[in-house]
Design a protein that fits this description.
By secondary structure, this protein is an alpha+beta fold. The protein is built from 4 helices and 4 strands. Strand 1, helix 1 and strand 2 form a beta-alpha-beta unit.
Length: 92
């Protein structure tokens, strides 16, 4: 229903939560296609999802933005996204 009115911005909250691998692939492909002409804000706690579909990461911890940049920057150096996430949220 969110697409019926052809919005310029889509807000997706955990779009692949509870989906099987085939459905997850289909939703990711849909997001990639829509991102060509729309702004998509995606909320997720699944870092693999971020890597699969996002070009930019905004990480909020305890109500504060602790990171805002490209996915590649999140994994700068020898760090994985998981390691960087833990560093930025104080869990490292």
């Amino acid at each position: 229903q969110a697409l019926l009115h052809d919005p310029q911005v889509l807000i997706l909250d955990e779009p692949t939560s509870g989906l099987d691998p085939n459905q997850t692939h289909e939703v990711r492909e849909l997001i990639h296609g829509l991102a060509k002409t729309k702004t998509i804000l995606l909320s997720t706690h699944i870092l693999q999802e971020v890597k699969a579909v996002c070009s930019r990461v905004i990480l909020i911890n305890e109500g504060r933005v602790v990171f805002d940049g490209p996915v590649e920057e999140m994994e700068a150096g020898q760090r994985t996204m998981e390691t960087r996430f833990r560093e930025l949220t104080g869990a490292a």
